[in-house]
Design goal:
This protein is α/β, with parallel strands linked by helices. It is built from 11 helices and 12 strands. The chain is globular. It binds ligand PBG.
Length: 324
């Protein structure tokens, strides 16, 4: 009790650093990149200042710059030349992500861990994450699963080190695990977007990846922001189906979910600090309303404190620069 107990004693000078409970390391960062086969020079995303669509020909240079900053991993999102009903440009050996993976791996080998996002929404003409029944406007679950399996296998064949299914189809982790195993990719881990909420914070990403829907939304497969118990069920199923890492997405509005999943599952846990979270801080900083470096650090350390072991963030390069 005061005056014997004075919390301020440990808040000053070196001791403040020594009692810090959480730390942020460059090894916590995953750098997200949009690789785009329709452009020939890097193009900034309007709603995400400082974030670029990168042409396939430039992707190895981009990865090299990240590796030079000490960033251990990147996650790739593809923007393809062609889209169709099925999203077939997701799984061809010469499609955008597969080419990009080969470019990065041949340049950097083990110096960059390459993760690929496995979903169909960037590749389908309708922009949905699965096959669509137009009569009912339903996103069909089971017919989508083999396509996700096929996509994951094509990424692994190109040299991807890890796959990250993000489509929130039921049974998707099992389908991807089985497809990988059947093709001798038993050692490729799966980072599952286990608790992915139906969030308006993905807005800028959909501009960046040209993946908006032409009708409807993603609420029939992505989670209701009001739910928390459901996240534990999603994570339990994904773990049973073979997920090696579970992810919570978005991050900042869902710190309670990160904390809960880390505590309940004690699994390697990732958080996705999404496009809208980035855009908010950027916009306010550009207006001079927030100090960008400080809010970036505070956001990322808070995500770690909540329980994340690793963070996918558009701030990866800026943060790595500071940590260096
Ligand atoms: C789906 C996917 C999305 C994001 C990552 N993977 C978009 C969506 O569900 O619409 C969003 C990431 C972000 O907002 O930064 N392929």
């Amino acid at each position: 009790m005061f005056p014997e107990r004075r919390m301020r004693r440990l808040r000053n000078g070196k001791i403040r650093d020594m009692v810090r409970e959480t730390s942020l390391s460059v090894n916590d960062l995953i750098y997200p990149v949009f690789v785009n086969e329709t452009i020939d020079k890097p193009t900034e995303v309007a709603s995400m200042p400082g974030v670029f669509n990168v042409p396939v020909e430039k992707i190895a240079d981009d990865a090299k710059e990240a590796a030079d900053l000490g960033i251990p991993a990147m996650i790739l999102f593809g923007v393809p030349e062609t889209k169709d009903e099925q999203g077939s440009s997701a799984w061809g050996d010469d499609d955008v992500v597969q080419r990009a993976v080969r470019e990065i791996k041949s340049e950097l080998g083990k110096d960059m861990l390459v993760i690929t996002d496995v979903c169909l929404c960037e590749y389908t003409s309708h922009g949905h994450c699965g096959m669509v029944n137009y009569d009912t406007e339903e996103i069909m679950n089971d017919p989508t699963l083999p396509l996700l399996g096929k996509t994951a296998v094509s990424h692994a064949r190109a040299g991807a080190d890890m796959v990250a299914p993000s489509g929130m189809m039921d049974g998707m982790i099992a389908a991807v695990r089985r497809a990988l195993d059947d093709n001798n990719f038993q050692n490729i881990p799966i980072m599952s977007y286990a608790a992915k909420y139906s969030s308006a914070f993905y807005g800028p990403f959909r501009d960046a990846a040209c993946s908006g829907c032409c009708f409807g939304d993603r609420s029939t497969h992505q989670m209701d922001p009001a739910n928390s118990d459901e996240a534990t069920m999603e994570a339990a199923l994904d773990v049973q189906e073979g997920a090696d890492i579970i992810m919570v997405k978005p991050a900042l509005p869902y710190l309670d979910i990160i904390y809960r999943l880390k505590t309940e599952f004690q699994m390697p846990t990732a958080a996705y600090n999404v496009s809208g979270e980035y855009a908010m801080l950027k916009a306010a900083s550009q207006n001079g309303w927030l100090d960008e470096k400080q809010v970036m650090y505070e956001s990322l350390i808070s995500i770690k404190r909540a329980g994340a072991d690793m963070i996918i963030t558009y701030f990866a390069r800026d943060m790595a620069e500071i940590l260096k």
